[in-house]
């Protein structure tokens, strides 16, 4: 996706020429007579502001329909409702803790089985396919270990077995990757992150290219009702206009920081895919995450990602709090691991802040 295309797609209001998308707060729409409709009846079903965003987003993704939901988790829940008891879904091993928690609930409550497999190894995945397998669920850059998985071979494998491929593309955004164009069936994002981009909107999006799947999701979206509000839809459409600038800047900052951290005292391991603004760092055993977080001044200790500000998250007690400790330890999500979502600040401010916080935290520990 080229930056110029992105900017143009964000401008959709052609009836008045308004540059910023109008916010239609009306929940109900008057009919001219029996059997007549403007196309809008009730806002849960369809809202002009949400619709404008959904159409723009579907174009960006190369899909036919986007469904904007009240959160990223609502998007994943919407997708879960496509499946029934006995169905099996193969899920990438390292993934967002909230998704893990929702899948556990669906397994216990509704008997849908979620099997965690290493998508780095296609033979392992293929060995788990059976007559009940209905989908692959992949985070192409895993959270929080930043494992880079190429989903392309799975599109072919999925077609051979009549399996859906679902991609959680939150980290990459449509600016860096458009999986529907490559062969995926369903793409979702926590739009709370890069799409909104300013830490002021909670939202999710699901996009598909198959008309039958679109119709099924359309019915579920309206029926379940976790649809995105007009104001939040407006914020997402505004976010699209600067997505390319923000993604480029945070990726560039992250690439520089990942390089610098390779030789920084206190850092034992840099986990970075080389793409996106997301990277994780493992501190050396004699450094403490708590002490580091006490001293940061530019970076913020907060639990989200993809915004203009650099955030440091502690997966052990934040994003992955509901994962049993033994499971976390086994996966390498330990008490020295921090996840950074690099923002769009001046690079030097981020680097200097991390260096001074590491130094001061070391002094704390040794005093
Ligand atoms: C990769 C990923 N998917 C989904 C979600 C859930 O999104 P939300 O917090 O908007 O419900 C998150 C949240 O952090 C995430 O990181």
From TrEMBL:
Any one GO MF annotation of this record:
transferase activity
- What domain of life? Bacteria
Enzymatic reactions: L-methionine + H2O = methanethiol + 2-oxobutanoate + NH4(+); L-homocysteine + H2O = 2-oxobutanoate + hydrogen sulfide + NH4(+) + H(+)
Residue numbers bearing the N6-(pyridoxal phosphate)lysine modification: 193
Biological processes annotated in GO: transsulfuration
Q: What is its EC number?
A: 4.4.1.2
Gene Ontology CC entries for this record: cytoplasm
Keyword terms: Pyridoxal phosphate, Transferase
Coiled coil among keywords? no
Q: Entry's Pfam families?
A: Cys_Met_Meta_PP
Name what cofactor the protein needs: pyridoxal 5'-phosphate
Q: Note the InterPro entries from the entry.
A: Cys/Met-Metab_PyrdxlP-dep_enz, Cys_met_metab_PP, PyrdxlP-dep_Trfase, PyrdxlP-dep_Trfase_major, PyrdxlP-dep_Trfase_small
**UniProt record similarity statement:** Belongs to the trans-sulfuration enzymes family.
Could you tell me what this protein is called?
homocysteine desulfhydrase
